[in-house]
Design brief:
The complex is a heterodimer of chains A (269) and B (249). Chain A has 8 helices and 6 strands; from the N terminus they run αββββαααββαααα. With 269 residues, chain A is mainly α. Chain A has one domain. Chain B is α+β, with helices and mostly antiparallel strands and 249 residues long. Chain B folds into 2 domains: 99 residues, Roll (Ubiquitin-like (UB roll)), CATH 3.10.20.30; 142 residues, Alpha-helical ferredoxin (Fumarate Reductase Iron-sulfur Protein, Chain B, domain 2, Orthogonal Bundle), CATH 1.10.1060. In chain B, a hairpin with a 2-residue loop joins strand 6 and strand 7. In chain B, 47% of the residues are buried. Classes of the chains: A mainly alpha (269), B alpha+beta (249). The interface between A and B is large, with 57 and 67 residues.
Chain lengths: 269, 249
Amino acid sequence: MPSKVTALPVKRTFGETMRRDAWWIQPIVVFIGFSAFIVYSTWAAFQGTFYSFENLLSPFYSPEIWGPTEHALIQRTGAPGWWPGFLPYSPAFLILWAPVSFRLTCYYYRGAYYKAFWADPPNCAVGEPRNNYLGERHFPLIIQNIHRYTVPFALLLLVFLSIDAWNALWFDSVGGGKQFGMSVGTIVLTMNVLLLGSYTFGCHSLRHLVGGGMDRLARRPIRRTAYACVTCFNKRHMLFAWMSLIWVGFTDVYVRLCAMGVWTNVRFF
Amino acid sequence: MATTTFKVWRGDSAGGEFQTYEVEVDHGYVVLDAIHQIQAEQATDMAVRWNCKAGKCGSCSAEINGMPRLMCMTRLDDLPEGPVTVEPMRAFPLLRDLVTDVSWNYEVKASIKQFTPKAPDNADGSWHMEQYDVERAQEFRKCIECFLCQDVCHVLRDHAMHDRFAGPRHYVYAANLEMNPIDTGDRVAALRDELGIGYCNITKCCTKVCPEGITITDNAIIPLKERVVDRSYDPLAKLISLVKGNGGD
């Protein structure tokens, strides 16, 4: 058990530091980036309209479990019968909890939003605004340990988003049936799957589950390969976290503006 | 030769202040060169701890322009224009000037369960270890115990939780032992309780300042946190472990 250390230097006050670089830029950029995404995605989820266009479906609404469009698994108008009448309904509400919980408990995001939203600390070697500290050892942040339970849902969403990207390759033909083709929307949806996959497959919990929790991997070729693959993505986890966040938002914007008639989904062939 | 201004902390645990020194520096100088020059020509009583001047002994840890760094590995050419501030580490008690008492770290290290090898695989007392498994923990053995990671960690630096939190250096040490295929020691419960790994909130500052480039957060702390989750917070992992009758390995 470590002992108490006394006679430490006087604690620095909020924002106090001897750093001479622009340490405040990083938390501000993270704060603005996350805030913008939260505001936009919440607004988009509440709309319940303009989330699909021809063979394109917004990732915020995928899979459309219960909804009016041709993409829906159960094609119905209005809310499911069990949905509380006093709550507004949008197909996004049935699935958004999965990516939200995955990102909210992600090890990278945790470190980033503790700094940007809670100044705990504002940045490395910069004074904090408060004296008490509980870390992730006590309630409420001990809940972050559920992260591994969000991983299967994030992986399942990748399957549905891959199906959406595949569907974006097939267009209604004049004589009926489907015709293979490609549009800007196809590329947007495919990029979305690739970036979300790169982020999800770099997850720290997944890394632990596929092999990191073991001391001997050399004689387990499948686990060893899986561990090496996840480690490869994990090295760029922050990069893919940001790229996938931005692209998933842009994908919704693209589908929405096409559905509203503002943008035209240019078809290459 | 150019003149550079240094603001160096002078004082002890009772108090002190930054004192300004003008130093003639040459191309390729590191901060420790300048400190030695000040010590030789202007402040012969200045206390500074150093040894190898090659970034391998971990003695000359200090805060340069507000960031924990090794004085011997910080080139003046790489610092921005203007005065260079040099002060002692803030997570440990100050002895004098740039020297701090880091003995708490050795006390914590001694409290961690030591290497406990399994019975030898061979009659000559040796073990079988595959290179792949050896390499995984090899990164952790690069640690030079400069304690810059401890200094930058806000749990020690700002919250002074030395009695509940072991700090990044000791999680690297524990990870090296925990991931060793020969070791049979179990440190997971201690990591959760006495060593307080749950207080880490993954700022990655420790990784940022490590002069050896050890990926402390991603490769040591988070894998250990996941092992703690296996044992304490994941009912499914606990069930699997009980069925298999081991720790999951």
